[in-house]
Specification:
Layout (H helix, E strand, L loop, with lengths): L1 H16 L6 E6 L9 H18 L3 E4 L13 H11 L4 E8 L5 H14 L4 E6 L6 H7 L11 H13 L22 E6 L2 H10 L3 E3 L8 H11 L11 E9 L3 H19 L9 H11 L12 E4 L1 H15 L3 E5 L5 H15 L6
Parallel strand pairs: 1-2, 1-9, 2-3, 3-4, 4-5, 5-6, 6-7, 7-8, 7-9
Length: 358
């Protein structure tokens, strides 16, 4: 056992010392709805974006789950992934994430077994504990309303993994269940979160971990370092695998990037006041931001959004990845105009030298 732990520590040190070389980039898409557009158009734009970043050489394309919001259109990432998998060739597709407390672990296992059967070797199942909406939406989504439900997320995760690995304890009620369709391998399961609790859960289950820095930037370093330091292996993994999801807006000039950023700055302030309207145009956002005065969104060691020219954003992302000892960053871009959103991903891919197939 001592030799194995020493080997793991050596591998971790090598990974962290050369982490910036070949930094991988992935995408978290929230299907943002722009003012003047419909949710249906936002979903179509997400599909088009997936095709484009697939061709640009990004590693993953994850879809988020949010409920009853005019701002974000995707309530069922698994439905979107079934379509996106058919529209893409090589990029991994996944949930960022499935809010597991709303659902039966068995049903989630079946859904992602189906996706894996359709797109073997390309499916990620990111699971989270947050409701993905407000308290009323959470109540409507509850599996049972007869009694107050306890927080059984750890038990749900254990059950979900047991379905995939077929390793229920002897005599367990569900030990004989077969999760169809049966195929070699399975989806890669990730823990997603924005707190120290999620970091501990990822360590406990030996799973890869993604921290939502763009949502909650204060504890990013603490969560990633606790996960990396505490990881003991699991599910055929000897070393930890962590990433952070950050906001990014790239443009040809700093001035344009800052202007485009106005829309998401306003969005963040609106959400704090319970306002879930669609994403405003930069022109309207600049005007409305004046009404908020000095009110600002809390930032951490790094900003929620890296904004600027491709070279500046690359420098910031590489510094953050190097400081955290991670080899991949998940990029989330929200701007009002879809063409500008696609262009941001194109500029970033070009700056990092990803495989572009134009």
């Amino acid at each position: 056992m001592g030799k194995k732990r020493d080997c793991v520590a050596d591998i971790q040190w090598i990974m962290s010392s050369e982490i910036v070389k070949g930094l991988r980039l992935s995408v978290l898409d929230q299907a943002p709805v722009s003012a003047g557009r419909t949710p249906g158009e936002a979903l179509q734009e997400s599909i088009a974006l997936a095709r484009r970043v697939d061709s640009l050489g990004y590693t993953r394309f994850w879809m988020s789950e949010h409920h009853a919001m005019d701002t974000l259109a995707c309530t069922a990432p698994e439905v979107m992934l079934a379509r996106i998998g058919a529209e893409t060739q090589r990029i991994r597709i996944g949930s960022g994430g499935i809010m597991l407390p709303h659902y039966s672990a068995f049903k989630v296992a079946e859904v992602f077994r189906t996706l894996h059967a359709l797109y073997p070797g390309r499916v990620d199942l990111g699971i989270g504990r947050a409701p993905g909406g407000g308290p009323v939406e959470a109540l409507a989504l509850r599996r049972s309303r007869k009694v107050q439900m306890e927080d059984d997320f750890p038990e749900q995760v254990a059950e979900l993994l047991a379905y995939f690995d077929r390793d229920f304890p002897a005599g367990h009620w569900f030990g004989g269940l077969r999760v169809s369709p049966e195929m070699p391998g399975g989806p890669d399961v990730w823990i997603l979160g924005s707190s120290m609790w999620s970091s501990v859960a990822a360590v406990e289950f030996g799973l890869p971990y993604a921290f939502a820095h763009f949502f909650s930037p204060v504890h990013t370093r603490s969560a990633i370092e606790a996960y990396t330091r505490g990881f003991r292996g699991g599910r055929e993994r000897l070393v930890p695998e962590a990433t952070v999801a950050v906001g990014v807006i790239c443009a040809e000039t700093q001035e344009e990037a800052d202007y485009l950023h106005s829309s998401v700055r306003l969005l963040q302030l609106r959400i704090r006041t319970g306002d879930r309207r669609p994403v405003a145009s930069p022109e309207d956002a600049v005007r409305e931001l004046r009404l908020f005065g000095d009110m600002a969104v809390e930032e951490g060691e790094w900003p929620r959004y890296f904004v600027g020219t491709p070279s500046r954003v690359r420098e910031q992302l590489e510094r953050m990845a190097g400081d955290l000892g991670i080899g991949e960053v998940v990029v989330n871009t929200i701007v009002w105009e879809h063409a500008k959103r696609v262009r941001s991903y194109e500029l970033l891919a070009g700056e990092f030298g990803l495989c572009v197939d134009d």
